[in-house]
Design a protein that fits this description.
The protein is built from 16 helices and 30 strands. The chain is α/β, with parallel strands linked by helices and about 750 residues long. The strands form seven sheets. Strands 2-3-4-5-7-10 form a six-stranded mixed beta sheet. Bound molecules: beta-D-glucopyranose. Beta-D-glucopyranose (BGC) binds next to loops.
């Protein structure tokens, strides 16, 4: 039974609130010159010749593809993309690199080293917008130092399926949390006078058949979930560009969707920047009319549509001519609003890898989630005598996710395991890489006098023998995931479940450290003493893990996703199409040759914990969950539905941070769970803080064609340690209100 169903002590406050505008987030310009960027862009478009008007509207992938690749322009840097500039008009070339988690390494083409932040889910586990911004600033500065001025960052697709191979790049399942975090990351990136994207608009929830998966979802449900994350991210971060997604939405390719790009993004939301396509996501010239402004990675499409073909069309057809001017204006707006021309990025800039590593380490420390800690086995005493460390290549490094977001540190990977010998176009993604940050070494530094033995875990008998001799056994378990490929299920691969079970049986003080892309099932959970969710912890992951294990860092991460108790709890017990299209992610052009319906109307906007609330399911670990080495109490919730105040107190013996969470629990007696606000609060033992949150009215509302509608009625709120463990309910009566965002 879900715990919050048994609440008591509800109080009723009768308050009428009329919302004029979405109050919590105010659109901000992120960089220099945003105010006059419009006027400048319009004036420059006036000066462009017909030929110049198709220069900025398309670009190549700056990687040599195929047997006879065309040479790149001399100023192109190997990376995801290159769009030439127009020197006559002082318009810089756009040099694009992937960068959700750091400046990416493009399959080893550029071995210049970059700082890897922990995975998106690790970042989201911090629930810390300020730290997101710092991380964004850091990766933006590295991109700039390498000469890039466009970062293909800002992945904010909601986790609708825990088996999605790209979950590790994104920020979880909740639109408020993910939207605010991505907005701050973008703000940090763009503070370097470079452009950031937000991606992939929208509903790109699985890799299986990603170019033709046809998502079915009602408009209202889309606005209340995935689109809300984008909207909030755009309001806070004001990204110069939006990258549209590979998949189809109700029969239309996302990059060719008049509804999504023109109506929602540009008309309803008033977005001023430009829409770039994902690489190989453009089905035809008409995408320009449907709102696409730039064709990226054009070698990957069936044709280059946005070059002379577009120019010729513009000469014949007024609608294309108007659009072409608008496309240029939008691209120029992004350049001028971010000062890309005034502060040109040049290769060869200095990078302080030590300082940037510190940022990555702080994110990892705040992002590790302590899932289980029986008998307070953690933190470990530094004088623990004998420690067995098992598996996960923990002697060498920490796991990284793969795909276009892959980052490599200075000196390359600690270990790189090719998973295919094929030379197919995406085979460079199928390398299992470990960053050079050895947990074993970091643990040795924490406990220099301990007898610490490492066993790689290939042979269970050998691991068990070592575990038996130790006071504590720490098993590192990994689940690699990559762009382009979903997990078939939620088990740990390579028989690691059996390894953990055997070690836990041999030693009751077994601690499991999980380096996974997303949630996994844990059949061995109750046999273990502790479980530490470390995600892909980035450039200094080993140090961060050791710091948590030995208590130098008090864990404060909270899950930004639900860990299901079983795949049967999911809206789709299997990934749609996996049986037929397993691994079919990039080979096909976005044409009509395959059918794959993905029905998101099943859960609608009830993604993750919202779905569990609706169904009454209890998760293995719920959204918002995470333990600490201290304890907290939250009390005194007072809310009028617009703001909320309460007290958070550290009732334990150590300094630590709590993530206070406020949930809408029900509306007019119907279960309707929504994260309504949150704050990470750092407190010394015995200290308390009064927290005030403002509630974004959109999380309470229904999206309708007329606007956001808050129906009249009784809204129940509660503070939560997580989405399932909620405190007393406070009920508020709200008047009906209709507002626009
Ligand atoms: C990915 C994008 C990425 C692009 C360029 C695509 O395959 O979906 O996220 O930015 O490649 O590398």
């Amino acid at each position: 039974m879900r715990k919050w169903l048994a609440y008591s002590g509800a109080t009723i406050a009768v308050i009428g609130i009329v919302y004029g505008v979405a109050g919590a987030q105010v659109a901000q310009t992120s960089s220099t010159g945003a105010d006059d960027a419009d006027a400048r862009a319009a004036a420059i478009v006036e000066q462009m010749t017909a030929d110049e008007k198709t220069i900025l509207t398309h670009g190549v992938m700056a990687i040599h593809l195929g047997p006879d690749p065309a040479p790149f322009p001399p100023d192109a840097i190997p990376g995801a993309g290159y769009v030439p500039g127009i020197p006559r008009l002082n318009i810089p070339a756009l040099k694009e690199t992937d960068a959700s988690l750091g400046v990416s390494y493009v399959g080893g083409l550029r071995n210049d080293g970059a700082t890897a932040l922990p995975s998106g889910l690790a970042m989201a586990s911090t629930w810390n917008p300020g730290l997101m911004e710092e991380g964004g600033r850091m990766i933006g500065s590295e991109a700039r130092a390498k000469g890039f001025n466009v970062l293909l960052a800002g992945g904010v697709n909601l986790m609708r399926d825990p088996r999605n191979g790209r979950n590790f790049e994104y920020l979880g399942e909740d639109p408020l949390l993910a939207g605010e975090l991505v907005g701050h990351a973008i703000r940090g990136i763009q503070s370097n006078n470079i452009i950031s994207t937000i991606k992939h608009l929208a509903l790109n929830g699985q890799e299986t058949g990603r170019k033709f998966a046809d998502v079915q979802i009602s408009e209202a449900a889309a606005h209340e979930s995935d689109l809300l994350a984008f909207k909030i991210g755009i309001e806070i971060g004001n990204p110069g560009s939006v990258m549209c997604a590979y998949n189809r939405i109700k029969g239309e390719q996302a990059c060719d969707s008049d509804w999504l790009l023109n109506k929602v993004l540009k008309d309803d939301w008033g977005y001023k920047g430009f829409v770039m396509s994902d690489w190989g996501a453009v089905p035809g010239l008409q995408a320009a009319i449907h709102g696409l402004d730039q064709q990226s990675g054009e070698q990957l499409d069936p044709d280059v549509f946005f070059d002379e073909t577009l120019g010729e069309m513009a000469r014949k057809d007024e609608a294309y001519a108007t659009r072409l001017d608008d496309m240029n204006k939008r691209i120029l707006w992004a350049i001028y609003a971010n000062g890309v021309d005034a502060h040109p990025a040049k290769p060869g800039g200095e990078i302080d890898f030590d300082a940037n590593g510190d940022v990555a380490e702080e994110v990892a420390k705040q992002g590790v989630v302590l899932l289980r800690n029986e008998r307070s086995i953690l933190p470990l005493a530094k004088n623990t005598k004998r420690i067995a460390i098992i598996g996960g290549f923990a002697d060498s490094g920490v796991m990284s996710g793969a795909g276009s977001s892959q980052v490599m540190g200075e000196g390359g990977a600690a270990i790189l395991i090719p998973l295919t010998a094929s030379d197919g176009p995406i085979s460079i993604f199928r390398n299992q890489a470990y960053h050079r940050s050895s947990p074993l070494k970091a643990i040795r530094e924490m406990a220099p006098k301990a007898d610490i033995r490492y066993r790689d875990g290939r042979y269970i008998s050998n691991a068990v023998a070592q575990a038996k001799k130790a006071d504590v056994a720490i098993v590192f378990a990994t689940q690699w995931s990559t762009e382009g490929y979903d997990q078939p299920d939620l088990t740990l691969p390579y028989n690691q479940d059996a390894l953990i079970a055997a070690v836990a049986e041999a030693n009751p003080n077994t601690i499991v450290v999980l380096e996974t892309g997303g949630p996994v099932l844990m059949p061995w959970l109750h046999e273990t003493a502790a479980v530490v969710q470390a995600w892909y912890p980035g450039a200094r992951g080993g140090e961060a893990i050791a710091s948590i294990l030995f208590g130098e860092t008090n864990p404060s991460g909270r899950l930004p996703i639900t860990f299901p108790a079983s795949e049967n709890q999911l809206p789709r017990p299997k990934v749609d199409g996996f049986d037929i299209y397993e691994g079919d992610f990039s080979g096909r052009p976005p044409s009509q040759d395959a059918e794959l319906i993905v029905d998101y109307d099943i859960e609608g906007s009830d993604v993750g914990y919202r779905w569990n609330a609706r169904k009454g399911y209890e998760a293995l670990f719920p959204f918002g969950y995470g333990l600490s080495y201290t304890s907290f109490e939250m009390s005194g919730l007072d809310t009028d539905g617009s703001t909320a105040t309460f007290e958070v107190k550290n009732t334990g013996k150590r300094t630590g941070a709590n993530v206070a969470q406020l949930y809408l629990v029900s509306r007019n007696g119907q279960v309707k769970q929504r994260l309504a606000g949150y704050k990470r609060v750092m407190l010394k033992p015995g200290r308390s803080e009064i927290v005030t949150l403002s509630i974004d009215p959109r999380v309470l509302a229904d999206w309708t064609e007329e606007g956001w509608l808050i129906p009249e009625g009784v809204y129940e709120f509660a503070l939560g340690d997580n989405a399932e463990k909620l405190g007393s309910v406070v009920a508020v009566e709200l008047e009906e209100s209709l507002f626009q965002d």
